[in-house]
Design goal:
- The chain has twelve helices and twelve strands.
- It has about 270 residues and is of the alpha/beta class.
- Helix 7 links the parallel strand 6 and strand 7.
């Protein structure tokens, strides 16, 4: 039986808002919040399970048939109808189709990562802004990268802003979260060449062979990769800076380097 919720003070709504706002709550409960038809489609296709689904019939009735078909395809979840007023409290972006869901998170340890032969992996160390991680995920998806490894994360993988910025790519790209030391040990054990993006003591990126199993490592925009990565690197690469500034946005740099690997592998 569908429960109708008309107050934002309802305990289920307060819990949902807490999941949106607090990474500790997401971590402890093993749940995160997802909004929108496209994101929920990608999420379910990737094998995630929905715990609860909140729909606003007033908005949903104005959407196309995708929303109703999607609801019928969400197995085992609890369904709640919310008023437009309540939906306006739980929706964190405009233009969604009246659907918000609580989803069970997955294991993102290195042990859960399964890589093919000759993999292409992007590593992001200490990247703080959820939008940058989301943009990297979109690039990984577009370039066919085999995984994104996030080291020493300053934001969790299920941050609502990260999910929104990834446009669903957080569900289509294999992801692992770990320390830099753990990532280095894993990459070396699996025979991947480690390429660190840095301005000092480096060669131009298009002079570096990326056709074998490769991990491209990106650091922060202010200080770059840490010393542990510089020492572990098999090669250090840079993008030529021809203007007055000395760096690109980290997600843009990652895109340039990943697509060089794509170019070499297709050639």
């Amino acid at each position: 039986m569908t429960e109708v919720i008309t107050s934002a003070q309802n305990p289920k709504i307060r819990k949902l808002l807490s999941l949106q706002q607090k990474s500790a709550e997401r971590r402890e409960s093993g749940l995160f919040v997802l909004e929108g038809i496209r994101e929920l489609q990608h999420c379910l296709s990737a094998g995630y399970a929905a715990d609860s689904v909140f729909v606003c019939p007033e908005i949903l009735d104005g959407a196309d048939d995708r929303a109703r078909r999607l609801l019928s395809a969400v197995p085992g979840s609890r369904l709640f109808e919310v008023s437009r007023e309540v939906y306006s409290k739980i929706a964190y972006r405009e233009g969604t189709e009246g659907i918000v869901a609580e989803i069970h998170s997955k294991d993102h340890s290195l042990g859960s990562l399964r890589l093919p032969e000759r993999p292409l992996v992007l590593v992001a160390e200490d990247v703080e802004k959820p939008g940058n991680i989301g943009a990297m995920l979109r690039t990984c998806d577009a370039a066919g990268a085999d995984a994104l490894i996030i080291c020493n994360p300053r934001t969790d993988l299920y941050n609502p802003n990260l999910i929104r910025a990834s446009v669903g790519a957080v569900f289509t790209v294999r992801c692992a979260v770990c320390s830099s030391a753990e990532a280095i040990e894993y990459l070396k054990r699996n025979g991947l060449r480690i390429l660190t993006a840095q301005l000092q003591d480096s060669s131009l990126y298009y002079d570096c062979d990326m056709r074998a199993g490769t991990a491209i490592v990106m650091g922060t925009e202010d200080i770059g990769v840490s010393d542990i990565w510089r020492k572990a690197a098999d090669a250090r690469i840079r993008i030529p800076m021809l203007g007055r500034l000395d760096s690109l946005n980290v997600s843009v740099s990652a895109a340039v380097l990943l697509y060089e690997a794509v170019r070499q592998r297709q050639k």
